[in-house]
């Protein structure tokens, strides 16, 4: 009788706690980047600046189309949107005009958010009132930050400023 009463008082998730494995394996390869702990490649001090990123926005313009790519520093292109893609091309008058740049920016932002990427590095300096500026504006309006957060560095005991740990959630 006492054993039955004890089982009823223990919540169901705690009953199987002893049989559950204490080891957790995270199979998400980008998890360390999301919590800002992964290493960013620095390159050499003589290299051109702009090599310190996890994800980077690259725009390529050819004679016939516009391409926006999200490139991972290790694995290469992750997301690619072209104005010559069939679904996008059917909605456009031309694959090189201002509307093509705006459409590529909107679709690129949507695909990035669907893939779970909301921050990337962008070193493109657009001209005022140009097509590239409109594409970047549409990417920002789509909910993408064009600046990656800094890597979390563990503070020393004597440091005055202690940054918040990105893996701890503080609710108020």
For the biggest β-sheet, the strand order reads: 1-2-3
**If helices are DSSP runs of H or I spanning 4 or more residues, what is the number of helices?**
6
Helix content: 25-40%
CATH class of the domain at 31-141: Alpha Beta
CATH topology of the domain at 31-141: Nucleotidyltransferase, domain 5
CATH architecture descriptor text of the domain at 31-141: 2-Layer Sandwich
N-to-C span = 44 Å
Strand content: 5-15%
Radius of gyration: 23 Å
Oligomeric grouping of the chains? single chain
How confident overall, as mean pLDDT? 83
How does the overall form come out from the CA principal axes?
Answer: elongated
Number of strand segments:
3
Low-confidence spans: 3-8
Topology as a string of helices (H) and strands (E): HHHEEEHHH
- Superfamily (CATH H level) name of the domain at 31-141: Ribosomal protein S11/S14
SS class: alpha+beta
Largest sheet descriptor = 3 strands, antiparallel
Features:
172 residues; three-stranded antiparallel sheet; 6 helices; 3 strands; disordered N terminus
Task: Describe the structure in your own words.
The chain is built from six helices and three strands; from the N terminus they run H-H-H-E-E-E-H-H-H. It has 172 residues and is α+β, with helices and mostly antiparallel strands. The protein has a domain at 31-141: Nucleotidyltransferase, domain 5. A three-stranded antiparallel sheet has the order 1-2-3. A hairpin with a 4-residue loop joins strand 1 (55-61) and strand 2 (66-72). The longest helix has 18 residues, at 98-115. 16% of the residues are buried.
